[in-house]
Target: Leptin receptor gene-related protein
Amino acid sequence: MAGVKALVALSFSGAIGLTFLMLGCALEDYGVTYDSDATSSACRELAYFFTTGIVVSAFGFPVILARVAVIKWGACGLVLAGNAVIFLTIQGFFLIFGRGDDFSWEQW
Model:
C-alpha cells in the first residue's frame, strides 16, 4: 500500500509541475501565447552529459528569455517552478523505486 501512495504522490506532483509549465507558456498576461567515478562507462558518462545539459538548459533558458524581454518574469517563475517540481518528482521516483531487489537500473 505504501508503494501505491508513493506512486500517487509522485503522479500528483508531476501533474502540478506540468501545470506550472503550461501556465508559464499559455497565460496571455505574460505575452507568450504565440509562441562520475573510475568505474563508469562511456555510455553512463554520455548519459550524465546529456542529463546535465537538459537540466541546466531547463533552468537557464527561461531566465535568458526573461532577461532579454522575450517572456515576462512571471512566466519565467512559473516555468522554473514547474521544472523544479518535475525534476524533484523524477528524483523521488528513483529514490523510492530504485531500491527494489527484483529490478536494477544498473543492468542498463
Notes: The chain has a mean pLDDT of 77. The first helix runs from residue 2 to 26. DSSP finds three helices and no strands in the chain.
